[in-house]
Amino acid sequence: MLRALAVDDEKPALEELLHLLRSDARVRSAEGATDATEALRRIGRALDAGPDGEDAIDVVFLDIHMAGLTGLDIARLLAGFARPPLIVFVTAHEGFAVQAFDLKAVDYVLKPVRKERLAEAVRRVSDLTAPADHRPGAAGATPEQIPVELGGVTRFVPIDDIAHVEAQGDYARLHTSEGSHLVRIPLSTLEERWAARGFVRIHRSHLVALGRIDELRLDAGATTVRVGSAELAVSRRHARQLRDLLMRHVRG
């Protein structure tokens, strides 16, 4: 069961969040802090107790706009800890989802907090903190995710679900087997961040997951790839590199 810390400098919002967390059967305990100093002190004490201590904190639910250090500042500090807790942002502001993505937050919940939405965030945390042989899907490191907006609600899409990405100005459209999502992140930024995850640039407008390429076709000097039902052009400057990468991928 989870041990949670909720951080919000508005006491009514903090009390409501704690009430919802304590009513969830997957949460063993939920404590509150009204500022960064108190939050960091509690987290540090928990870390000193060791990962199996009764005070150890599994997840921190962070408001973003607070007096003094913001929730983003706290998350950046926690990223430098040897055993940081997981982070869920709880905020009234939609505009910080990209920063949450950079900080590897598990989820991004908008205020006013709905019980069902918070329960989904708790489920995500619970899945990630479960023993490896009890986790859904393959065991291993926390899957990287990217925040997307769906009907005014921020969701996190696993990067492993994305087959290819299409540039649309300062935005990028992420294509998965279930549909597409528009995010305000340039394609060049995603290319740099996701290179280690097997994404390759095939055109100024397209980034593709190498393992999702079903077919490479050369026709009258023009190169294309098929990714699911999509056929994408490969620019001449990227064609040779792509062929080499595909050969290595197949041999590996």
Folded structure, characterized:
- The chain has helices spanning 11-22, 36-48, 71-79, 97-102, 115-129, 187-194, 236-251; strands at residues 2-7, 27-33, 59-62, 86-91, 107-110, 145-150, 153-158, 162-168, 171-176, 179-183, 199-203, 206-209, 215-219, 222-227, 230-234.
- Mean pLDDT is 85; it is low at 132-142.
- The longest helix has 16 residues, at 236-251.
- Helices cover 31% and strands 33% of the residues.
- It is α/β, with parallel strands linked by helices and 252 residues long.
- The chain has seven helices and 15 strands.
- A hairpin with a 2-residue loop joins strand 13 (215-219) and strand 14.
- A five-stranded parallel beta sheet has the order 2-1-3-4-5, with helices on both faces.
Distance between the termini: 40 Å
Could you describe the largest sheet, including whether it forms a barrel? 5 strands, parallel
How are the strands ordered across the major sheet? 2-1-3-4-5
Share of residues in strands: 25-35%
- Average pLDDT, to the nearest integer? 85
- Give the overall shape, derived from the CA principal axes: elongated
* Number of extended strands: 15
Helix tally?
7
Question: Share of helix among residues?
Answer: 25-40%
Order of helical and strand elements: EHEHEHEHEHEEEEEHEEEEEH
Strand-pairing-aware structural class: alpha/beta
Regions with little confidence, pLDDT below 50 for 5+ residues = 132-142
Rg result: 21 Å
